[in-house]
């Protein structure tokens, strides 16, 4: 049995386990028929030493880079002309050109199908470990009513509103902004406008708030209360034209 207490490793025969009772005979046999290769320190049969040297240690020239190496190292030597496949694409290039190619090829970006971000090919393995959308549960719990809502700033009035309310606010804010521009274009009412305003107020003062009347400028039917300020605005718009 290999490694038992009755066995002993032979230093001349690749530490082969030999029974202690037969070790002396085995050792004398190895000393007689084996010798140490001066190139690789391996014990080989004496009669095969020359063949071993020829097959393993003779200098041969690499057909790709013309470098001379030992025959036993030919397949694994660092041949600069040896073709190597790029880790980012299917292209095969000589080893001497692969470093430069890998820098450019690895810098290309592809869009992550999970989070939509553009990630370089070189960083994709690391991104796969930290991509936020990869770790979102399939059935996420609905957000609690106490969770903080996202706030955005209106570009017209520079006030902050919840994201879900911004669309409604912008409709109102844009309308006010347009009215403000018209007021700036004609900051003072002419005497005819003031007269129209006062006459309109005089006609409708004390009237029914649900009464409908038409604007004399655009003929739009509006409640009396609304028509009071609309008529003035409409007059301004007519004068601007």
UniProtKB/TrEMBL annotation:
Q: What are the protein's UniProt keywords?
A: Metal-binding, Zinc, Zinc-finger
Tell me which residue ranges form TRAF-type zinc fingers: 26-83
Q: Name one GO molecular function term.
A: zinc ion binding
Q: Which residues form a coiled coil?
A: none
The TRAF-type domain, residue ranges: 26-83
Instruction: Tell me the superkingdom of the source.
Output: Eukaryota
Question: What is one cellular component GO term in this UniProt entry?
Answer: mitochondrion
| The protein's name | XIAP associated factor 1
Q: What taxonomic lineage is listed for the species of origin?
A: Eukaryota, Metazoa, Chordata, Craniata, Vertebrata
């Amino acid at each position: 049995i290999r490694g038992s207490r009755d066995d002993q490793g032979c230093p001349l025969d690749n530490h082969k386990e030999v029974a202690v009772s037969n070790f002396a005979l085995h050792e004398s046999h190895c000393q007689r028929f084996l010798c140490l290769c001066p190139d690789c320190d391996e014990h080989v049969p004496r009669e095969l030493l020359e063949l071993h040297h020829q097959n393993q240690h003779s200098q041969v020239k690499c057909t790709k880079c013309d470098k001379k190496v030992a025959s036993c190292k030919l397949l694994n030597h660092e041949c600069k002309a040896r073709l190597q496949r790029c880790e980012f694409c299917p292209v095969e290039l000589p080893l001497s050109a692969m470093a430069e190619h890998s820098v450019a090829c690895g810098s290309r970006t592809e869009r992550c199908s999970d989070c939509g971000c553009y990630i370089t090919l070189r960083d994709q393995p690391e991104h796969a470990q930290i991509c936020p959308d990869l770790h979102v549960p399939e059935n996420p719990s609905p957000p609690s009513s106490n969770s903080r809502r996202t706030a955005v700033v209106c570009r017209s009035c520079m006030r902050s509103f919840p994201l879900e309310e911004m669309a409604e606010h912008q409709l109102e804010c844009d309308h006010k902004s347009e009215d403000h521009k018209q007021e700036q274009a004609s900051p003072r009412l002419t005497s005819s406008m003031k007269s129209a305003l006062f006459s309109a107020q005089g006609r409708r003062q004390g009237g029914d708030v649900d009464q409908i009347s038409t604007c004399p400028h655009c003929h739009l039917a509006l409640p009396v209360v609304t028509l009071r300020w609309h008529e003035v605005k409409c007059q301004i718009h007519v004068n601007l034209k």
